[in-house]
Amino acid sequence: MFRFENPEYLFFILLLPLLVLAQNLLHKRSQSILKSLGNTQTIQKNIIGQSAAVKKQTILWMSCILMIILTLANPQYGIKKQNVQTGNAQIMIALDASNSMLVDDIKPNRLARAQLLIRQITEKIATGKTGLISFAGEAYLQSPLTTDIATIHLLSSIIHPDQIPTQGTDLSAAIQLALKSFPEKDGYHKLLILMTDGEDHEGEALDAAKKADELGVSIITIPIGTEEGGYIPDPKMGYKTDKDGNAIRSIPNRVLLREIAEAASGEMLEIQDSDLLIKGIQSRIKHIIKKDLSFQLHNEYESRFQWPLAFAIVLLLLIILKPHFKEI
Fold first, then answer.
1. Pair 311, 153: CB distance under 8 Å
2. Which of 17, 159, 217, 326 could lock onto 190 through a cystine, CB 3.0 to 4.6 A?
3. Domain extents for the chain?
4. Could you tell me how far CA 59 lies from the centroid of its own chain?
5. CA distance 111 to 249
6. 140-to-90, 132, 221 alpha-carbon distances in Å
7. Could you tell me whether strands 249-250 and 230-231 are parallel, antiparallel, or unpaired per DSSP bridges?
8. pTM
9. What is the pLDDT of residue 294?
């Protein structure tokens, strides 16, 4: 159970040989200059004494720098148990930004209604942290988990299909990105709210939902749109058409969204009554949080940076005080 918390700092160790090489070149240059001066025997004694002193000084400096690098990398060994308050859940909201979300079967359209719902949810439901994902043919993390609700409001309000280069609807991509965006530590209650019309073009959403359930992430699905559906607007042609020239009607896939929610120990909630929907989310949060526990344990690596830091301080003191030893 050993790791470095910040392994990127270890690359600086590769610079140490270059520093030693540069120091040796400078030292040899100073020796050649010294040999061009004065008595050969006297100079030879000085060179030998100087070389030994420089070598010791170099070893001390390189060792000190190495210890500082290890301190920054923060070696971690062993695991400790830490209490985490579990009064709130961490919520990731995934908003569908495919072209079909511009259908106006819900006024003013599906996307605008979902954006309003995000504001209502974040304002009325107290959570630890909230994150935001937009998706269509691909998924994008708009905001990691944060307590800054104003940022969630702003970012969700500007999501539009024009921002997503790959159109289509890949529900599995949104679920998988949400799983990566939650913390890996145990002891946190995780909830994904999936807002979409459910037209999954990839067909892997159920597998992703089952994976979410294995990782302890519940999913609430919210179908955006009426059961009658509507036509997808097209700026050039009025409505998008199929290969036969018929206007494409988009109908939310409630069957799939219900299956996704059930596979991830969640539920499907309807958007028509926002107050009832918010109560449903609150009820789901209470369900995934155990009321009889106010704290829950999770595993945490034990940091050991104190040891290399202590060695670095000792070496630095030796470097500073070494000239004074000769005077005593």
1. no
2. 217
3. 2-79+302-327, 87-289
4. 40
5. 16
6. 18, 9, 18
7. antiparallel
8. 0.62
9. 43
Treating both helix axes as pointing N-terminal to C-terminal, what angle do 171-181 and 205-214 enclose, rounded to 10 degrees? 20
> Measured at the alpha carbon of residue 170, what is the angle toward residues 175 and 274, in degrees to the nearest 5?
65
Amino acid at 158: I
Cα–Cα distance between 132 and 139 in angstroms, integer?
Answer: 11
Domain 87-289 maps to which CATH number in 3.40.1160.10, 1.10.1740.10, 3.40.50.300, 3.40.50.410? 3.40.50.410
Q: pLDDT tens digits for 87-105?
A: 567 899 999 999 999 999 9
Q: Which helix (H) or strand (E) holds 230?
A: strand 230-231
pLDDT band at 192 (very low <50, low <70, confident <90, very high): very high
Q: What is the DSSP string of 191-211?
A: EEEEEE----SSS-HHHHHHH
Amino acid at site 101: M
pLDDT in tens, 206-253: 999 999 999 989 999 999 999 899 998 887 778 888 788 888 898 999
